[in-house]
Write a structure and sequence with these properties.
Elements (H helix, E strand, L loop, with lengths): L2 E6 L5 E7 L6 H12 L3 E2 L1 E7 L6 E8 L2 E8 L2 E6 L10 E2 L5 H14 L2 E10 L5 E9 L6 E2 L5 E2 L2 E2 L10 H15 L3 E2 L1 E5 L5 E10 L5 E9 L10 E2 L12 E2 L5 H12 L9 E9 L2 E8 L2 H6 L5 E4 L4
Antiparallel strand pairs: 1-2, 3-8, 4-5, 4-9, 5-6, 6-7, 9-10, 10-11, 10-12, 12-13, 14-19, 15-16, 15-20, 16-17, 17-18, 20-21, 21-22
Helix pairs in contact: 3-4
Length: 316
């Protein structure tokens, strides 16, 4: 009889190796051997997964070795260690106990059964504020591609799920502000951009933090605002920061209703060609929060330039 042996790939899918012997170690046995191999308990990420035809939960860890991000797991019944080339925003390694291994395993098994998956991966890693961010993916039977189960995302075990966001609504802007502050542990942000029709993206340029290797990192991400999501995973921008990368503003110093009013004012302006609108960007300019709307309509740029930018008043 042929069995499948699983490698939990770091890039987001499970890869399969045929002709493997039956994988018989439980998660804690795997972790004991992995920790013995890496010589400690300090790690930056932990992944557990379930797969059809494999009797046990699989696990992999990411850790820092000689200034490199490294991943270790069992492949074909043997330990495999490889360097990774994408450090992510993180406060750095923490003890394995911070991850709550048993809870992650229980989540992977529950999702695998409840969502009717052929494979499930629970991905936990140390974020920039030191909180453990957890995401869940499911390769659902009969559906193409990997489904991201945003509603199961957590920060330090607490729900970190964002519903669809309408930035013309003050309550939705407030929900974004809270999610951002919970994630970074700070309301300081460099910029965010809200895309209009045809785009529907929320681009976030966060704080200058560190990556898993302790190097400077400008944390960024992009999500769709018209569907449920989470703010993570964040990614590190290039190390060659733009000159204004450290210029930030504090979200708490501005009323969500005033930010929503700026978006609504552009979206409902009868003078502007709405089909040509691209996005509205918010960033610090001087000592004030500036907003600027982009359009492909050159006529609007010429005639209504004063209606395509403005300032958000600071709270009194």
């Amino acid at each position: 009889m042929r069995f499948w042996c699983v490698v939990l790939a770091v890039v987001g899918v499970v890869s399969l190796l045929s002709g493997c012997r039956l994988f018989q170690m439980d998660v804690h046995e795997q972790l004991d051997k992995i920790l013995a191999e890496i010589g400690g308990r300090q790690i930056v990420a932990l992944r557990v997964g379930e797969l059809d035809d494999v009797p046990n939960t699989l696990v992999s860890v990411e850790w820092v070795r000689d200034g490199r991000l490294t991943s270790t797991w069992f492949g074909s019944g043997e330990l495999v260690t490889e360097d990774r080339d994408q450090p992510f925003p993180s406060s750095g390694p923490v003890d394995l106990d911070r991850f709550g291994v048993d809870a992650l395993v229980a989540e992977a098994r529950a999702v695998f059964k409840e969502e009717n998956c052929t494979s499930t991966r629970v991905d936990a890693r140390v974020g920039p504020s030191g909180k453990i961010e957890t995401r869940v993916d499911c390769d659902k039977k009969g559906e193409p591609g990997i489904r991201k189960l945003h509603e199961r995302s957590k920060l330090d075990g607490q729900p970190a799920f964002l519903p669809a966001l309408d930035f013309e609504s003050a309550s939705d802007v407030e929900a974004f502000k809270k999610a951002y502050t919970d994630y970074f542990g700070s309301a300081e942000i460099q910029t965010f951009s809200y895309g209009f029709e045809g785009d529907h993206s929320l681009q976030i340029g966060g704080l200058q933090v560190t990556n898993t290797l302790g190097e400077p990192c400008l944390a960024r991400t992009s999500i769709r605002w018209d569907e449920p999501s989470t703010l993570f995973p964040m990614f590190c921008d290039d190390k060659d920061f733009p000159q204004d990368a450290t210029i930030t503003f504090n979200l708490d110093e501005y009323d969500a209703a005033d930010i929503a009013a700026a978006v609504s004012g552009v979206r409902n302006n009868p003078n502007l060609n709405q089909s040509a609108m691209i996005s509205i960007d918010f960033y610090q300019k001087g000592n004030e929060l500036f907003w600027e709307a982009g359009t492909t309509d050159t006529g609007d740029m010429m005639k209504y330039s004063d209606q395509l930018s403005g300032y958000v008043p600071q709270k009194a």
